[in-house]
Amino acid sequence: MAYEYTLSIIKPDAVKKNVVGAILSRFEQAGLRVVATKMLQLSTHDAEQFYAVHKDRAFFQDLVSFMIQGPVLVSVLAGDNAVLAHRDIMGATNPKEAAKGTIRADFADSIEANAVHGSDSLENAKQEIQFFFSNRELVE
Ligand code: CMP
């Protein structure tokens, strides 16, 4: 098993619902460590840059508008196979398809207001972590 780092975003809908602690607990219960975290308000530019890979998708502008509605909590999670482990804990992107007991099944309302984001590959995890954190913030 490979020790990995991945990026987590607790999205504005979940922050508004006051379930930040409940979601972080899910990560810890699954054996992942929170090695860096901060709350911030994304600007339009931030959200457009972060989700640039989706810029040609029909939902892009709605996604950007949603992500700037309120603060998000961005974290770096670490652990064995952290990228896949995190995606398993989150569940499917669409909460209607998310397995029972996953974060999205329990906290998400729709494919847009889906509570959390997680890196989908090790390569993207590295880029996404660098997008939000400087080396001196990664203290593990
Ligand atoms: P996330 O993992 O943050 O990555 C991109 C986001 O786009 C995704 O979660 C969804 O919240 C959002 N999104 C909105 N509509 C769609 C859609 N039709 N298909 C995929 N993702 C969507």
What gross morphology would you assign?
globular
Mean pLDDT: 97
Give the distinct bound molecules: adenosine-3',5'-cyclic-monophosphate
In N-to-C order, the SSE pattern is EHHEHHEHHEH
Question: How far apart are the first and last residues' alpha carbons, in Å?
Answer: 19 Å
Overall strand count: 4
* Helix count, DSSP H or I runs of 4 or more residues: 7
Strand order of the largest sheet: 2-3-1-4
Q: What structural class results from the helix and strand content?
A: alpha+beta
Strand content range: 15-25%
Calculate Rg over CA atoms: 14 Å
The residue fraction in helices comes out at 25-40%
Low-confidence stretches: none
Largest sheet: 4 strands, antiparallel
List its salient traits.
single chain, binds adenosine-3',5'-cyclic-monophosphate, alpha+beta
Describe this structure in words.
This protein has 140 residues and is α+β, with helices and mostly antiparallel strands. The chain is 39% helix and 20% strand. The chain has seven helices and four strands, in the order βααβααβααβα. It has helices at 12-16, 20-29, 44-50, 60-67, 82-90, 103-107, 122-132; strands at residues 3-10, 33-40, 72-80, 116-118. It starts with a strand and ends in an 8-residue tail after the last helix. The model has no long low-confidence stretch (mean pLDDT 97). The structure holds adenosine-3',5'-cyclic-monophosphate. Adenosine-3',5'-cyclic-monophosphate is lined by residues 54, 59, 63, 93, 111-112, 114, 117.
